[in-house]
Fold:
Amino acid sequence: PVDVWTTLGQIDNRLADALEILQPFGLQNPEPILAARSVRLAGPARRVGMKHLRFAIADGGARREAVAFHTDETALPQGPMDVAFTLQRNAFSGGAVELNVQAVRPAGVE
Structure:
């Protein structure tokens, strides 16, 4: 289940810092699941390793990098989509905040 619906423009280092204060995550303290509605791919998805995708999504004014583990291109709907994710810092890009995708569905599907 989604804990908070947000926009991509609200995702920044301050939000990531605030969520990190809630750690450690586990059974008694699950990691918050955020989600954004009606986002679109902002370029082609690219395969990373055998079963992972890296891609960018945008919702108008903001664009964010995302990674989806154990999935392939067929999991991404064509057109607008709702994306559920956790936040993580990418150690390979200077600790930039990115989305760790948990689920994707076509926009507007409940």
Notes: Residues 13-20 form the longest helix (8 residues). The beta strands are 4-6, 34-41, 46-48, 52-58, 63-68, 81-90, 96-106. The mean pLDDT is 92. The helical segments are 13-20.
